Amino acid sequence: MQNGTCYLYDLVSDTHEDNNLASKYPEIVKEMKAIIKREHTSSSITQFNSITLPN
Question: What is the pLDDT of residue 35?
Fold first, then answer.
């Protein structure tokens, strides 16, 4: 994930992550975003909080 954008790859057949499948599988991306938002917790160490969460 970069700048709030989620990427989805089939690592079995695309080990170099050449083909982003996010637009082909929007429901999986939606589920990924929900999991990321649900499971994310802020750190007490400020520099660790500079990640970008998905939109």
Answer: 93
